[in-house]
Amino acid sequence: MYFRQGRREDSRENLLQATERNPKDGPTWMRLADFAEEDGDLKTAITFARNAIRVAPEDEDFRSRLMELLTASGKDKEALRVKLTALLTSKNPDIQRVYQEILDIAEEFYGMQDVGSCIRTYELAFDKLPYICSSRDQLRVIQLLEEAERPEETLRFFLKYWGASLLTADGKTVSPYKIPSSSSVMETVKRCECIESMKLPILLKFLTLMVRFNLGRVVKDRIDSVATERNVRYHYMALYDLAKVCKSTGLADLGLKIAKLLALHPKSRRISKIICLLGDLQVECGQHQDALSTYRHVINRLDPRCTEARLSLGNLLRRLGEEKAALEILQPSHLMSQPATTTPLRPSTTANPNSSVPKRSVSSNRLPSKMDLDSSSHSSGSVSDIEDEDAGDEEEEEDEDEDLDYEEEEEDQDDEDEVSEALKLSDDSPSENSDDNDTSAPMVPSLDQNSAKHLLCNDPVAMRIAYERCRLLDAPSTWKVFLRDACHLLFYDVTQVYCCEKPDPSLMFQHFLAKDSPVENLARLDSLGSPETRVSGEDLWVLCLRVFDILLSHKEYAALDRVLAWASVLPYVVGEPHRRRHVAHLFASVAFYLGDGETVMEVLRHLEREFAHTNQFWNLLNLAITMSGELRLARFLLRRVARDKNNLAASLMSCGDCMTRGSSRYSIALLTDVRSRHPEVPMISLLLAICFLNISVHKHIFSRHKSILQCIGFLSEYRRLRGECQ
């Protein structure tokens, strides 16, 4: 009656009183939910609808109404859970339809990117209806678990739903929920039983998980039975995963058996990572010579750019004491084809384009003359074919050793030239026709498309090889070569972009190269290539710090100044505040040591926002201005004072700078303005006295008496404010 009369509030109050008298009245709760929805209060409407569901859990209309409210409020997942609860508690005789609807709900969870809820929904379907679930649905759950990287739950799923069981010595079955979290229970496992109907792909996944959790001893015989040539034809990638896990868990002999089968089969013998795994397992088993032949087979005939093979071969050669051969393998020039013709950079009126390309020694550019990495002849990839190449490889190694010995003799004969070469990024002098007064580079320079292809940052594989070579060279006996290669890796790309020997101060700590430039990849190194082979920005930053440390230890401050100048334009340095701050502080210190006040000034300008509140910053800035004779530094101070008149340090420095440049009257005007805002600072009175004293000694002055009196007056005021002093 109240509702028909339009008295909604009275109607709602009566309904609430009715629910208090009879809380089990479902329709009353739903009427309250309708009222709350009409008022726009979906949260209250959902609460009333849930109360109605508690009263009548089997009422489909109530449940549908609750799902509509949840969907309208944006709670789609809760709506699906309500529907799932209804299906699990329903007494519908059509079991197949209920099972299919539960699976549909699981896929809806997956569409919402909730993999955990999707997996739990599948498991609820298997628990409720275990006799109609198909192996295809179970395989779908395994794929979801692998996608979510949950190996422990995957193993439990096998033990719960695939008929696999783990037994102790006395025949007791181990609970799936104690595997593999309990190490004590894992040690008691002695046998493993699987149903005969388990298909081979599923069995291989299960065996891989067992080996991964150190239960390989339990399934070793079963692995031997499935590692056959017949199974390699259709399941070689699953066997590859199994062999890889065997290598990491100490079952190298078992993994080696599988890897040999893969290396001999026509379908898998041309896959580089499979042959590399064979080499790794041969190393684990102590077959070093076979491993050398395997890695060389990958590099020479399968994939010359295979990073894994080159790194593994270099590390193995180093372990065997063949340092020179290891360095030659880790030469990035093997992977990067050099441009056939010299492509000019963007025209620059400031420096010779040749000066931007750092020189390298002959040995760093030389390719091995007796070794063809891109051989046109392809082998079958079998182990016997690999072994047949040993004799030819030994001859090639002898020729390589002769070349390396010749290079060593050249280095010994001209040691001083090598030191200067290692400590310099470029030895080319600027063009004679260049403008001496303008040494800046283009603000946003670029390379043409062909030249950009040969930059290291555009080739993650070559960059990783160059990085590993630098790590190998990082030793006291090879610090010169290390500096050369490290500087080439760190700064070669940016020197190709900026046509100058040293970047202009206006380019330092700027974000010009982070976007829309040929070297923009340097700003996103953490997303280039695969995670196993990429060189991150942190890796290159650590290499930068190592270069700084070596140059400091050898007191090569001039070279360090150039290195820091190029480091200040690297995108992965400019983009990180702590790296930028580290380079700026070291750069300012080195510039102070070299007496380059202008560079210090430019560096300090980038630190002003962060350290302007400290006295140390203004003291250093004052030293830089005093050390430099540039007039534009005085203009910078004047602009700084104009922006912030309350900055006492900048005001005093500006007045002192004007006074030292002979503008005493202008300095007096500035000091008078500062004195009006800071009358208690004695330094202002002293500077005013000095300014009037300077005016009094000018030759053209008409009368010195008035200036001397002003000087004495300000000195008296200084004495009053400062107190007794010398």
UniProtKB/TrEMBL annotation:
Residues 331-446 are annotated as: Disordered. Transmembrane segments: none annotated. GO terms for cellular component: transcription factor TFIIIC complex. Residues 385-420, 429-438 have a biased composition (Acidic residues). InterPro entries: Tfc4/TFIIIC-102/Sfc4, TPR-like_helical_dom_sf. It comes from the Eukaryota. Pfam families: TPR_16. Residues 334-367 have a biased composition (Polar residues). GO terms for biological process: transcription by RNA polymerase III. PANTHER family: GENERAL TRANSCRIPTION FACTOR 3C POLYPEPTIDE 3, TRANSCRIPTION INITIATION FACTOR IIIC TFIIIC , POLYPEPTIDE 3-RELATED. This is General transcription factor 3C polypeptide 3.
